């Protein structure tokens, strides 16, 4: 990958973020449905985090961006997990948010989501496996780094000014971009913002990573 290709990937992510920000311009009144309110909260948090992620990448600081991306991945997984696994069971989300009850581990949530996808053939097949040890193990790599361990830490052990290779930065951009954009589609769909959903879906269809979605 060339520097020019990396810049093009970053510009694409930034342009799509600006589009989503433009589409997300409605003030929604609080709902009686805690799941809808929590979905809004998770989307708002991820929007703030993703904006910071893009800023750090743009400033040439991919390692702090990894810490942000780990949080985005966790919240994204919880948002989808709650909607497709817990909501149909009628689970009360208040104890989960207050901390009275623990969320399942990240790996249990991704396993449940992959199983749900395989059984329903609903587009979730294998979608979360890529983040686990069974595939690219991205979550583990990000987590090890935030706890002072792993391959990214080794980079800092050998040089004063640690750098991430172009391919590594590209992987971060692609991962974060995909997470935020699919979360945005999920958000617009769940909140019944039909026009916003259709506009974003139409725009994303132009890009290779969504051609078969």
Question: Would you kindly provide a written description of the structure presented here, covering whatever features stand out?
Answer:
This is RiboL-PSP-HEPN domain-containing protein. The chain is mostly helical. It has one domain. Helices cover 68% and strands 0% of the residues. It has nine helices and no strands. The chain is globular, with a radius of gyration of 18 Å. The two termini are 25 Å apart.
Please sum up the structure shown.
The protein contains nine helices and no strands. It is mainly alpha-helical and about 210 residues long. It has one domain (about 5-20, about 35-210).
Summarize this structure as a short list of keywords or feature phrases.
plasmid; 213 residues; RiboL-PSP-HEPN domain-containing protein; mainly alpha
């Amino acid at each position: 990958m060339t520097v020019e290709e990396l810049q093009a990937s970053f510009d694409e992510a930034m342009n799509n973020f600006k589009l989503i920000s433009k589409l997300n311009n409605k003030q929604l009144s609080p709902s009686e449905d805690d799941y809808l309110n929590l979905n809004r909260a998770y989307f708002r948090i991820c929007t703030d985090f993703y904006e910071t992620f893009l800023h750090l990448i743009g400033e040439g600081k991919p390692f702090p961006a990894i810490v942000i991306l780990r949080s985005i991945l966790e919240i994204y997984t919880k948002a989808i997990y709650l909607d497709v696994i817990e909501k149909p069971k009628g689970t009360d989300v208040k104890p989960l948010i207050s901390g009275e009850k623990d969320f399942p581990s990240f790996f249990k949530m991704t396993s449940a989501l992959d199983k749900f996808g395989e059984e329903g053939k609903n587009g979730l097949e294998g979608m979360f496996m890529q983040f686990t040890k069974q595939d690219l193990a991205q979550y583990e790599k990000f987590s090890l780094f935030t706890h002072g361990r792993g391959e990214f830490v080794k980079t800092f052990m050998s040089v004063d000014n640690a750098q991430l290779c172009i391919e590594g930065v590209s992987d971060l951009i692609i991962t974060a971009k995909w997470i935020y954009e699919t979360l945005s589609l999920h958000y617009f769909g769940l909140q019944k913002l039909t026009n916003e959903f259709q506009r974003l879906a139409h725009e994303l269809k132009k890009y290779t990573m969504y051609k078969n979605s």
